[in-house]
Amino acid sequence: MTTLSSNQEENSKESQRYTGVKKEPRDRGTLLPQDVFCDSCMDSPSKALKSCLTCLVSYCEAHLRPHLENAKFQNHRLVDPLHDIDCQTCELHQRPLERFCLTDGCCVCLDCEEHEGHATASVGEARTQIETELQKQQEEISQRASAAEIAIGKLRSNNDVIKSSVQEVVVIVEQQFARLQTAVEEAKRGVVDALEGEQRKALRQAEGIRAHLEQRKTELMSNVAQMNKLSRSKSDVDFLQEYSEWKKGMADVHLPGPYISRTDHLTGYVQVVTDSTHELCELVLSSYKDTLQCICKSDTKSLTFDPDTTHRFLRVTEDNRKLTNTSPWQHSYPDHPSRFEYWRQALTSDSLYLGRHYIETELSGEGAHVGVTYKSIDRKGEKNTSCITGNDFSWCVGRNSQGFFTWHAGVETALDVPDIARLGLYVDFHRGSVSFYDATGHMRLLRKYMADFIEPLYVTSWLSKKDNVVFLVNEK
Questions:
Q1: With left for phi above 0 and alpha for psi between -120 and 50, is residue 318 left, alpha or beta?
Q2: For residues 50 and 64, is the Cβ–Cβ distance under 8 A?
Q3: Sign of CA dihedral 380, 381, 382, 384
Q4: Residue 98: what are its φ and ψ, rounded to 5°?
């Protein structure tokens, strides 16, 4: 009854207000896009004067008269013109949505008793408050976007520096290998010159033997002529005397061998060159390999866990290198967008990016897991994809009640190992490989994954049970 009486009074005032007012022709050309139009004008649109919250219709001055003069409409509630009037009233009570429930985040009317006791504000105040918050968020997002743009610019510049630096090193490397190739060519020429010297020496020796054989041939032919002359002697005495004289001066009929054997000498050259080449090749390859490995190892980062990502049931100690599950003790860490809220995980502050990286971690307790993932992993979700064992951009090793396993994309692979106290993790970002090693004693490969990395990788630990520990070991 109170509502009905109030509506009647308001409509009566509206009726008196417009009674006796001289009606002038309406200039329809003055309509603006933001005006509310009369829903009853069929031929041409007219500006609405009032909206009826009961009829959910807006009326111009002419079509409003029944609501002002007819008693049947006295209980209808008239308000200033509203756009989308059917969206501006409560579906349950058909009253204006005048308040905003800050608790449930929805617009309500004054008769919505289910929101009684909740913090509310007028829709205007709520909008002002929310717009202020949105403005702050927009400023923060703009600042982050600007920071991201600056970081992108720095990354592009860094990429150019990397490319130019690598090209400079490539030029130096090519120069050094050219020197090495020149040295090899000089060594080759030295060996070939020595062999050619051996050839000249052998040929000169052969020429000397040939000349000696020619001389011996002449002497032998002379002997043949004298022997023929002896056979023509008529007297036996003459024959015997001439034979005796010829025999005294007869030339040696033995001839030197016509072949000069240098096989053993040349085989020595082959052996020396072959052995030296093999030794030099092994020395060159092993020297470069060992030296480059030392350079890569010396570039290894000392990783630490990022406190802003650490779940509230986890504690970081020892210069943020030791992570422990302290359940059921929960730490009062401040809220942070990067903090894990459901899965008890933590990421390292630095990433494994551009190059080859090797780190070692110590695992303790059934439920300790460690691996790598992208920074974009969901920090607030409860689905398995928010855990390093359940998505296709994470790779990890851990232990459960059945033993040790590796996980990737939700696929669990058993490892044939009794225990792993120290785990080795090797990432070759360029080649796209993640390898896990048992580094407890003799280094042994456990599992190797191949992938096309599209983001930097962060070492991540998931400690599912109380007293689980993961410790990041710094290389000395």
A1: left
A2: yes
A3: negative
A4: -95, -20
Q: For residues 198 and 202, what is the distance between their CA atoms, to the nearest angstrom?
A: 6
In contact, 433 and 367? CB cutoff 8 Å: no
Q: Could you give the CA distance from residue 110 to residue 222 in angstroms, rounded to a whole number?
A: 151
CA gap 429, 373 in Å, rounded: 13
State the pLDDT at residue 30: 73
> Which runs of E-coded beta strand occur in 277-355?
314-317, 322-325, 345-347
Residue keyed to tokens 């600007």:
146
Per-residue confidence band for 288, with pLDDT thresholds at 50, 70 and 90: low
Which residue in 63, 136, 56 sits closest to 89, CA to CA? 56
CB atoms within 10 A of CB 303: 21
Q: What is the pLDDT of residues 378-391, one digit of tens each?
A: 999 999 999 999 99
Q: In angstroms, what CA-CA distances link 65 with 51, 54, 134, 156, 171?
A: 13, 16, 43, 70, 92
| Ranges assigned E (strand) in 329-421 | 345-347, 356-364, 368-374, 394-400, 403-408, 411-414
Residue 18 token pair? 């417009």
Comparing 27 with 196, the larger pLDDT belongs to 196
CA–CA separation, 64 and 78 (whole Å): 10
What is the separation of C-alpha 188 from the centre of its chain, rounded to a whole number of angstroms?
47
Cα 395 to Cα 403: distance, rounded to the nearest angstrom: 17
Would strands 368-374 and 394-400 be described as parallel, antiparallel, or unpaired? antiparallel
Would you report the helix, strand and coil content of the chain in percent, each value rounded to 5?
Answer: 40, 20, 35
Ranges 19-28, 44-53, 79-88, 160-169: which has the least confidence: 19-28
Q: Comparing C-alpha atoms, which of 424, 469, 464, 420 is closest to residue 316?
A: 469
Contact 396, 371 (CB under 8 A): yes
Measured between its terminal Cα atoms, the distance across the chain in Å is 86
Q: Which residues, 6 or more positions from 33, have their beta carbon under 8 angstroms from its beta carbon?
A: none
Are 341 and 361 in contact, with CB atoms under 8 Å apart?
A: no
For residue 5, pLDDT beyond 60: no
Q: How many residues belong to the chain?
A: 476
Q: How far apart are CA 152 and CA 129, in angstroms?
A: 34
Cβ atoms 219, 251 nearer than 8 A = yes
Task: With a cut of 50, say whether residue 3 has pLDDT above it.
Answer: no
Q: How far apart are CA 420 and CA 404, in angstroms?
A: 8
The pair of three-digit structure tokens given for residue 268, joined into one six-digit string = 């020595």
Distance CA 256, CA 211 (A): 11
pTM: 0.43
Widest pairwise Cα distance in the chain: 191
Query: Mean of the pLDDT values across residues 308-334?
Result: 94
List the one residue out of 406, 401, 339 whose CA is nearest residue 369: 406
Cα distances (angstroms) measured from residue 411 to each of 378, 390, 394: 19, 8, 11
